[in-house]
Amino acid sequence: MQSIESIADSPFSQNPNNSSSSSVNGLYGWLFECHGFWHNLALIIPSLLFALFLGFQAKKSFQKLSHGRSYIMISYYGSLWLVSLLNLAWCSLQAWECTPGKEMVWNILSLFTTSGMLFLEVSLVAFLLQGNYTSGLEALTRTFVVSGLIVGLDLLLKAIYLFGFGVPLFIDNTEHPHQVKWGLWVVHRLVLTAIYGFILFMYHSKWRERLPARPAFYKYVAIMFILNALALIACGLTGNGAGFGFWLYSATIVCYHALYLPLLYITFLADFFQEEDLHLENVYYSEMKDAGFFDTDWE
To answer: Where are the transmembrane segments (predicted)?
Structure first.
């Protein structure tokens, strides 16, 4: 753990009198300093690949969304794009956390990135509790208003603690763990763990009919429950000064920022686009059949 802590606490060395040396040190520090090479690589590569995947699929996705005319899917896809770009920036700029003078910018970027991802989480939970896909404007408005209020309150509280009380929510220090910070993260993770645990309980109770009968949703909830439970344990251990707790917390953060958005896409949007593909194939087949393209098959 000493090697991990030394990597996490390494300062950036820059020479302002030598521009070429400064650029090399900056590139080296961006990849190797602060949290370390493998930590940064584990964040940057998955988030970059997912952003590229969204970019390559953008034209097809827009066509399918316009054809499906689902307000919820269109809004959720747009939100996913915005949050993916924020998350890519957050993953790529890990060096700011350890750079003197970048604390304010890093806190703002972290605040909006985590709030955007939490908005997607809360919205998806709201869709889950509605029982199935809905496309009405009223359902979209109700879901997004509730999600916006919850995330807005969470963002406001974090901003108060960050800029009002000076609690370093997004800057880690293994040598001097901030008790208030880790206490707040314990509460945050406890709430999320309880929500996902309650949904899992619903799947095994008489209320399971109110939830979507799709295995992907159940797997998503189970994964998020385990992840938040591990993060809850990690925050509690780190707040008490345990080095393993900080390592476990860092691992959950890497998994969340690197894999959550692809998991959400597979769970919520991939089936929608696949269903649209099948629908379009049926439409094209019907049009070709009406035009007589398959008449020769019967001769």
So the answer is: 37-56, 76-96, 108-129, 141-162, 182-204, 216-234, 246-270
